[in-house]
């Protein structure tokens, strides 16, 4: 495996907090081999990237996302006044998630994944909902994650809000299906089953969960 050296970087360590200026960082695959001066001499065969003092730091983790909303920025929606969170959900976000299909979900996920990486986030936790496109939707999000190289956990909202018990069953089955897909693939995704807010779940789910 080839070694990459980030030369003349500003390296930041989160814990314990520390900053090194004008240092080299030697990387092999996904492992940092060394941080310090003069690493080009220690690894003469390495590929070298001149950083000119640019900041290198551990990737951040964003623990709450809704990647299905990626296409909504700047949306001109004619919605009723929404003075509280529940009315905002009813008048905007639940209307949006009902409109998602396979293509729009993929590009929404792609946009959000690119924005995450550009902002320094290398891992995210995403809570997804698309009631008209349930089966296979988490795999479509995973495709967007892998396209960009973003790590993440995702789940499908477990609810009977739109179509009753059928929607509830299909939501649970999609989470189970995707968990098995991740177990088989062992790649850059992970899976968590989330019940979301209590106002979205019937009592039976509370009792069984």
From TrEMBL:
Keywords: Hydrolase. Belongs to the metallo-dependent hydrolases superfamily. ATZ/TRZ family. One of its GO terms (molecular function) is hydrolase activity, acting on carbon-nitrogen (but not peptide) bonds. Pfam families: Amidohydro_1. Residues 55-188 form the Amidohydrolase-related domain. It comes from the Bacteria. InterPro entries: Amidohydro-rel (IPR006680), Metal-dep_hydrolase_composite (IPR011059), Metal_Hydrolase (IPR032466), MTA/SAH_deaminase (IPR050287). This is SsnA protein.
């Amino acid at each position: 495996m080839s070694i990459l050296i980030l030369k003349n970087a500003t390296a930041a360590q989160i814990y314990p907090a520390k900053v090194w200026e004008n240092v080299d960082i030697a990387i092999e695959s996904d492992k940092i081999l060394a941080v310090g001066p003069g690493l080009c001499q220690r690894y003469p065969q390495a590929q070298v990237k001149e950083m000119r003092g640019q900041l290198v730091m551990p990737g951040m983790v964003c623990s709450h996302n809704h990647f299905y909303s990626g296409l909504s920025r700047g949306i001109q929606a004619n919605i009723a006044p929404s003075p509280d969170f529940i009315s905002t959900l009813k008048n905007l976000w639940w209307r949006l998630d009902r409109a998602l299909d396979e293509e729009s979900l993929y590009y929404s996920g792609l946009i959000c994944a690119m924005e995450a990486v550009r902002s320094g986030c290398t891992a995210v936790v995403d809570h997804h909902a698309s009631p008209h496109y349930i089966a296979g939707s988490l795999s479509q999000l995973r495709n967007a994650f892998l396209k960009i190289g973003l790590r993440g956990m995702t789940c499908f909202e477990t609810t009977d809000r739109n179509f009753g018990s059928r929607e509830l069953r299909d939501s649970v089955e999609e989470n189970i299906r995707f968990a098995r897909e991740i177990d088989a693939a062992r790649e850059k995704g992970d899976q968590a089953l989330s019940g979301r807010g209590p106002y979205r779940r019937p009592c039976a789910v509370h009792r069984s969960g």
